[in-house]
Fold this protein.
Amino acid sequence: MASPPSSSSGIEAFDVIIIGAGISGINCAYRLLTELPHLKFAILEARDTIGGTWDLYRYPGVRSDSDMYTLGFAWQPWSSNHPVATGDQIMEYLTEAVSKHHLNQFIRFNHRVVSANWSSTGRSWKLSVAHGDQQTKNIDCRWIVLGTGYYDYESPLQPVIPGLDSFKGMLIWFDRSSKVSEQSNLVYSGATAVSLLPILPDRAAQVTMIQRSPTYIAASPNTSWALSFLPKSLVNLCRRIRYIISPYLLVLLCHYLPDVVRDGFRKEIMAQLPKNVDFDTHFKPRYNPWDQRICLDPDAAFYKALHLPNVEIVTGEIEKVTENAIQMKSGETIAADIIVTATGFRMAMGGKIDLKVDGLPISWGKRFIWNGAMLDSVPNMMFMLGYTNHSWTLGADDTAIVLTRLLKHMEKNGKTSAVPRVSSEAATGTQRMWQLSASYVLAADDNLPVYGMAGNWKPRNRPPIDFVHARWGDYTSDLIFSA
């Protein structure tokens, strides 16, 4: 690959710009530093610290919803015997990883990328970057890597609840600034509520969790075997392999034998519920396991909370919200001082950056995905995409590995650009990018890219196999290279 584009106007130029200093961006920076140390790259982060999602969400009880042995980096093993970590522990881990591997030097905080335009003439991206309160500046680079996740950080998914505007109490959507006082609280179901509910009873007089329909919530001990007689490096390797393979096998079991998994959930959950909580009403989902995400409940903290005298669960449709209560369609009225709308989030690809190719806008909706990492007809751009049914970092690391392999290939062969072009065989049909039936996914489906039916356009949804493919499989088919 050629050296960074130069500019007589004093515009700074890079080989690679990574956008976002969350888990994806940090991991990609490490891969570039260790595999291609001669390249000039930087991470542009809109906020004033690292962490991405884990910096944004600071609500009580925030924690990982997957194990840290795979959510953590392969090059910075999670050494604790507790697979699930709190938000603070994750931030400490990320800070240590960045410091230990000297990645700080590549991060530029308060740099928000407003727009990016690919120039076919110059074979480079032209970025417009807002730096704090200063005037917008321009940056040139050969490649951009979007480590921006899939959340809309500016506007949450607003629940459609009649009368919500008339509520006179406190209405909370949890982010880093949210606080809970010692008043009664209403919590809506989902992964956020499952992590939040065990924390609130100590802070509030009454906590009622309202859900429209039941969710799969899997309780498991938050401990992992130590194997202290083995070298630490071998323990770390064994843990990572186990936690890559085991969840994948569970997903396969859910797919091929859903009734078996349903029966297993019923048996485990009924043993943990208080006698006054009916399983069929509150914990028998309408869908099969992994049609929507299975929520993780470390040490059964969620189910233990249901035994407390000031915790209640209500399942059903909301009729309306009044000034100080929620009225259910069943006729039940629930008094409320605070309503916590943990109802999911709005999806937004690419950090809402204005992306263009030769001045023409790039649409994410229904565009084909190459190798889980690039968009059809968009040159020199990769985006980090994790798994819906496994740790995010595994997918992001696969993309980073493909990127380094591709950059080495282009450098060796004197190429400056790579453009994916979907094959006619792959384009015979489409497959959803986010294969979940959750409401926030369905609401965004038309704006999401899609997978094809063959080759590198097929879905990346098999973590162990994808791991092998990213490192040793095909990484050039259906790419058009230019010198």
Observations:
- The chain has twelve helices and 25 strands.
- The first helix runs from residue 23 to 35.
- The longest strand covers residues 137-146.
